[in-house]
Amino acid sequence: MTISNPENLDEAIDRALAIGMERPDPRVAAVMLFVRQFEDGPNLLFIRRSEKVPNHKGQISFPGGGYHAEDDNLEATALREAWEELQLDPQTLKVLGPLPPTPTIVSNFVIHPFVAVPADPTQEINYQGDGFEVAEAFHVPLKALLEPAAFRTETWTIGGYSRPAIFYTYQHNVIWGATAFILHNFLRQIRAGHWQILFE
Fold first, then answer.
1. Which of 52, 65, 167, 185 is a plausible cystine mate for 81, CB 3.0–4.6 Å?
2. First-residue to last-residue Cα distance in the chain
């Protein structure tokens, strides 16, 4: 079923995320939303998970993973994971700040997203998948994700209650699950006038 009223949709999303944050003993993770400037404007980096990983095979996500005790903080977790998965050197990144934490329902994680850009926009940056977790890395223009046609929603029943499931589509790529919720929060903030530095 599609939720037709977009005003009520954001309220439903916020309620679902709030319920998820109340679950006991969540595991903690962090992801990196890396934005680069190309000719068509700011682009967001995604990865496609490989078929070798035990969970979420083939799904689209952001670089990231679970917090380790040796990480100084969750920002350090996101930077470490970006390096491990893509050989994305932390020294080449400038972290602009966090986004709201996002819970997962099935795996009981709370994911802390961080937005980053190149520290030096003139420096060439290359990615190299780790060969196990990452099948490919690709960019999506933010302006394409902001188009209403890129977004759809359904109502799913998970854990005994109904919640919105949201989907973003770009070309043949479908972004859903926790990644879609993180993306949705990011795009909501952009529409509200935040993160204008990304468009300058």
1. 65
2. 39
| Amino acid (1-letter code) at residue 139 | H
Q: Is 58 helix (H, G, I), strand (E, B) or coil?
A: coil
Q: Which of 49, 54, 70, 36 is nearest to 139 (CA)?
A: 36
Phi-psi region of 153 (alpha: psi -120 to 50; beta: other; left: phi over 0): beta
On whether the CB atoms of residues 94 and 118 are closer than 8 A, the answer is yes
CA distances, 67 to each of 19, 57, 76, 169 (Å): 22, 21, 9, 29
Q: pLDDT tens digit string along 23-42?
A: 677 799 999 999 999 999 99
The structure tokens listed for 182 are 């993180």
CA neighbor of 78 nearest in space, from 92, 91, 62: 62
- Residue 10: closest CA among 154, 185, 149, 128: 185
C-beta of residue 42 within 8 angstroms of C-beta of residue 35? yes
| Rounded alpha-carbon distances, angstroms, from residue 154 to 6, 12, 28, 58 | 12, 12, 27, 21
What's the CA gap between 13 and 98, in Å, rounded? 19
**Inter-residue contact 3 to 9 (CB < 8 Å):** yes
Q: Which of 108, 110, 173 is nearest to 140 (CA)?
A: 173
3-state secondary structure of 132: coil
Total H helices, total E strands in the chain: 4, 11
